[in-house]
Amino acid sequence: MLKQILFGISLLVTLGVFAYTMRQLFYNFRFTKPKKLTDFGQRLLVTFKVAILQSKIMRFPFAGVLHALVFWGFIVILFGSIEMVFDGLAGTERMFSFLGGFYDFLTGAGDVFAFIILISILIFLARRLFFRVQRFYGVEMKPVSKADANLALSFILLLMVSLLGMNTFYLLDASAAGRPLVGNYPVSERIATLFQGMSPEQLHFWHEFNWWFHILLIFVFANVLPYSKHFHVFMSVPNVFVSRIEPLGVVDNMDSITREVKLMLDPSLAADAPADAPPSRFGVADAEDVTWVNYMNALSCTECGRCTAVCPANITGKLLSPRKIMMDLRARMKEKGPGLAKNGLQYDDGKALIGSYISEEELWACTMCNACAMECPVNIHQPSLILDMRRYLVLEKSAAPGGLNAAFTNIENNGAPWQFSPYDRLKWAEDLSMNNID
Ligand code: SF4
Ligand code: SF4
């Protein structure tokens, strides 16, 4: 009974802290702009392909396959973790064994996956610690970003060691105590041969130790994740579901501007047009101007750097890094969110996303090639956020680079980006012989 009480208290504390953190993070969605989702069937297909089958991550085959195995392994192992929670609350052992053959399959797969994940994490850690993988570096990758990645990998490593330890000592403990063995443990069976000489008391102690160590580690890890880039463990699947399904090059129009242009082209529409309130801001200047999808993107970024590795601006030495743009939005929302919650949308802390976090130079370096969005394993669309920040600079600050300002003026005056009158457009053809064809 004492075990059940202790377990219940640990579970309540875990859920309480987790709910508190989630409330902080998700409260910030209130300050974002709306964005409509359509085509749910297509979204489900994209989620299956990109999130479940991990299709985009396979473009780097070695790391991709290992990551996919870790992801699929986690899904299988989740079954065992849920069983542990029920066992902990009810004071039972291997409660789901009534599932028979299916239980044997899941426990067997979980045991094998625990070993595969353990090896994969050792490789990931070695890559980070001993090899200079270029995309793990960059101005945005501060020491804390690296420590965060290494800490999360160490957590997962310990989780797998304790899971295999729990299975191993479960086999030995249950056999020594004459309890029936349930489930299937192909890897742990082999490890168990190393511990044959231990006394029944020692076997029972190490079984209990690994059980508690594993479940408490899950509880602590679940509460560390939201403060880490590994929050993508929770966010990546929903993020892929809400991600853009239009072709990458399609540019979203600004509704308010589209309406104005239509009215200019056909003033007769003005009589029927509803008098919309002017938008509070054109484009994005700060965290509260982004849509909820932009913010979700920022929460889902794995900081993998695949976007920055293919960004032509970054490769040619410009300041722009699409990974930094997403990390900056996440950091800015975290910084300003509490103030917005307390003082409302008018709150101003004297800083902004543009200027304090992201420079104009970074924004104008983007070629809108969409390579970053193409590569992102969680389907983040960085160019749309960059474009919206540029829109703010142009429409509210008139702060476009000189060349663009000249093109804008020409479009306004001549209907084309060139400095020639529209009446002169066909001058180039005046001397052509085909003019004389009658
Ligand atoms: S769209 Fe912009 S940020 Fe993305 S890869 Fe191309 S240049 Fe880089
Ligand atoms: S935006 Fe996408 S590709 Fe870039 S670092 Fe984040 S998750 Fe990786």
Describe the structure.
This protein has 18 helices and no strands. The chain has helices at residues 2-27, 40-52, 61-90, 101-130, 143-177, 186-192, 200-224, 232-242, 255-265, 292-300, 306-310, 312-315, 322-343, 353-357, 360-364, 371-375, 382-395, 402-414. The longest helix is centred in the middle third of the chain and has 35 residues, at 143-177. It is elongated, with a radius of gyration of 28 Å. The termini are far apart. 29% of the residues are buried. The structure holds iron/sulfur cluster (SF4) (2 copies). One iron/sulfur cluster (SF4) binds at residues 301-307, 322-323, 326, 375-376, 378, 380, 382.
Q: What topology does this entry show?
A:
Layout: H1 2-27, H2 40-52, H3 61-90, H4 101-130, H5 143-177, H6 186-192, H7 200-224, H8 232-242, H9 255-265, H10 292-300, H11 306-310, H12 312-315, H13 322-343, H14 353-357, H15 360-364, H16 371-375, H17 382-395, H18 402-414
Helix pairs in contact: 1-3, 1-7, 2-8, 3-4, 4-5, 5-6, 5-7, 8-10, 10-13, 13-17
The structure holds iron/sulfur cluster (SF4) (2 copies).
Entry summary:
The chain contains 18 helices and no strands. With 438 residues, it is mainly α. Helix 1 (2-27) crosses helix 3 (61-90) and helix 5 packs antiparallel against helix 7.
* Portion of residues within helices: 55-70%
Radius of gyration equals 28 Å
- SSE arrangement, N to C: HHHHHHHHHHHHHHHHHH
* Fraction in beta strands: under 5%
Features:
binds iron/sulfur cluster, mainly alpha, elongated, 438 residues, 18 helices, single chain, 62% helix, 0% strand
